[in-house]
Amino acid sequence: MSVNLGIFISGRGTNMEALLDACANGTAPATPKLVLSNRPDALGLTTAAKRAIATCAIDHKPFGKDREAFERALHAKATDAGIDLIALAGFMRILSPWFTERWEGRVLNIHPSLLPKYPGLNTHERALEAGDAEHGCSVHWVNSGLDQGETIAQAAIKVRSDDTVETLRARVLVEEHKLYPHALKIACEQILQRQS
User: Fold this and answer.
1) DSSP type of residue 96
2) Which helix (H) or strand (E) holds 57?
3) Whole-angstrom distance, CA of residue 183 vs CA of residue 111
4) What's the confidence (pLDDT) of residue 165?
5) Structural contact between residues 19 and 32, judged by C-beta atoms closer than 8 angstroms
6) How far is the C-alpha of 20 from the C-alpha of 52, rounded, in Å?
7) What is the radius of gyration, based on Cα positions, of the chain?
8) How far is CA 128 from the centre of its chain?
9) Domain with 28 in it: what CATH number?
10) Total of domains in the chain
11) Which residues share a beta bridge with 57?
12) Is the sign of the CA dihedral 68, 74, 77, 80 positive or negative?
């Protein structure tokens, strides 16, 4: 049994690569069916194509402020590909309730903070400004609230006295690449359990 996985990206797709590796080596019971980006020039699309994964770009810009029309296009593409589970891997668009309600319990996101701390952007800056001793990343189910869905797994690192935004970001990214495949496995097992 395997879950049909869709991965949504906006950039290089380093977390996407970690997920694809987890599918290929059997860590997660998932079959990647589609990598989709809202940016046609996303480097991750090339990476996915080299691995013989179907790719698609749906540029959000022509939709202007009509988020629902953009999300209808995402929904149609994911549905046509037979996707059971979507993993957001650096997908830099906030999904509206129109989308999240249709895909409830079937969308994951990775976020660079120890949620519920620091939802949204600039998480590393905010952790340093607050003088936090610990920082890290979380994988959570996506709901209509920004980074508010139930947490599946987290990884924490100690903040060093000489950390900058760049060093902290780089160290958290290393943890993200380990955490996301682990959380994907958990999510896939939950979905397969529901389907059985």
Assistant:
1) P
2) strand 55-57
3) 12
4) 97
5) yes
6) 11
7) 16
8) 24
9) 3.40.50.170
10) 1
11) 37
12) negative
By residue range, what is the domain housing residue 73? 3-195
The CA–CA distances, whole Å, from 75 to 6, 80, 127 equal 11, 8, 35
pTM comes to 0.96
Backbone phi and psi for residue 119, each to the nearest 5 degrees, phi listed first: -65, 160
Task: Indicate the SS3 state at residue 17.
Answer: helix
Catalytic residue numbers read: 111
Q: Which of 65, 66, 36, 39 is nearest to 53 (CA)?
A: 36
Read off the pLDDT of residues 91-121 as tens digits, 9 standing for 90 and up.
999 999 999 999 999 999 999 999 999 999 9
Contacts of 121 (CB under 8 A, 6+ apart): none
Q: Please give the structure tokens belonging to residue 113.
A: 């903070």
Q: Helix (H, G, I), strand (E, B), or coil: what is residue 74?
A: helix
> Is 71 in contact with 96 (CB distance < 8 Å)?
yes
Question: Cβ distance 89 to 68 under 8 Å?
Answer: no
Is residue 115 a contact partner of residue 34, using CB atoms and an 8 Å limit?
Answer: no
